[in-house]
């Protein structure tokens, strides 16, 4: 199997193939894992921005590789540059010049890396000059689920648990077969800073603490009963990652941000709902959980929109707003009644499995998930090559099947199946393909959109369309305990389907929620809003949902994976990976759990090296313990216990 690019679908397929005993080669022309699913340190993101703003053409200096093509073969050239990112604009709302001579602090010593950050040579030079700080080393150690002293990970229930970090940084485990909530309610003491003015953060501080940031190119959450969580548990890949609960669901109504009661306890403890509204809401949510059993309630409205259906359910305008935008999270104009009921049921079914909201977020960013599956593939013999571009696919004229690829070194590599990410296909292959676009914005702010006693909140907010014909905007706000930003800052992701450029689509929402003025220009009414310290806008291609037949002239054994979609969850990527795997190997199980080490039976030839003190069998090698994140801070190999 030859996989080209290391996005989430390709990484899942590679892991599944390696687990079923296939030989896998996984190559990526970039110098980091994840493609458009990656996460970056702040300096890495600045390098990524610069690279996508310049968009320099790649010259094909050597044509010697064409000698490798036989007479009965033809080539399908692959794209030489990435065209999936457009309209990249970044803004600094502080003195950018003051950070010119500031170097990124806390650089770790050079270690063998499994995932690389997006930082270029400048960041690598700073690693050489800056000695590792004690806090950085402690942070790196805390990312390893098992230390060299023989300590076990926090999640150890048969290796099938997901490790959840709660607000007070304690951990709990969730068995794959159980849905009961292990996380107890934690009361966090009111923060001293919350009552005071937010701490002044400068751009130079952001640059200096750049390694504290893990900034996702695509912003998503994991449904606690979604396909990705089920796959992580089933395959035991969950042991390579840690997760944090999304702590609250927010709504934007009448110009204000307010918290939405979701669970039964939240509804009855809510002070913003009257007693009558609480009964109305609970009655409707109970109906949504088993709406299929009561078709008489909705069958007359199947041709209507979900918003029209809600108006017939004796719900107040505020309850209709909460259900439509914060629970179902669907469009007011395009979503049918059945789609809205299905979305509401999915939300409710995910409540209570790991917390009071349906969502989990991976610590250190969404970019950890592809790397977790890459690790599983590597553990079972997969080979990974970054900075390794592919020139073309080699196709046999007689059979019409792809036989090999030719890389940028002029090497010909043969395989039976080829997995290609859409961005690698040239315009000649994609003439009949019509792409959608996603508008993205990433902000670094100095306080939360809704301040409470606890500063460590992971929030999701859906902002209804500002104008007719505009999409709703999904806002995800991350705190520093998610390991995605430095202390006293918040990382805010905004996402919506594109109608124009990302800045035109999202800036009106940013202006509603945040203060974009500099400190000197701030007016009194803007003082209550969080201040934006830095922002970037960009458009990303959405290639999901495109049929393989839309691509011209692709052989039957070449499978195309899409990039990220605009949905909140990851179901599209998991479905695509499983579909492609089953087409290639219909008789194989998709991502079965790995065997327990104590169940492995060694042959005599494998036992002999152990007696001499050396063991080179792959089963006996120590497994990697933590992923090298896109920020370049983590080592790929777990240290062995060398204590005497």
From TrEMBL:
Family matches, as Pfam families: GDI, RAE1_2_domI_C
SUPFAM superfamilies linked to this entry: FAD-linked reductases, C-terminal domain, FAD/NAD(P)-binding domain
Gene3D superfamilies: FAD/NAD(P)-binding domain, Guanine Nucleotide Dissociation Inhibitor, domain 1, Guanine Nucleotide Dissociation Inhibitor, domain 2
Alphabetical GO biological process terms: intracellular protein transport; small GTPase-mediated signal transduction; vesicle-mediated transport
Highest taxon above the source species: Eukaryota
Compositional bias segments (type: Polar residues): 165-179
Bias kind Basic and acidic residues: ranges: 635-644
Chief place of localization: cytoplasm
One GO MF term attached to the UniProt entry: transferase activity
Ranges of biased composition (kind: Acidic residues): 600-613
Protein's recorded name: RAE2 geranylgeranyltransferase
Source species of the chain: Aramus guarauna (Limpkin)
Native organism taxonomy: Eukaryota, Metazoa, Chordata, Craniata, Vertebrata
Gene: Chml
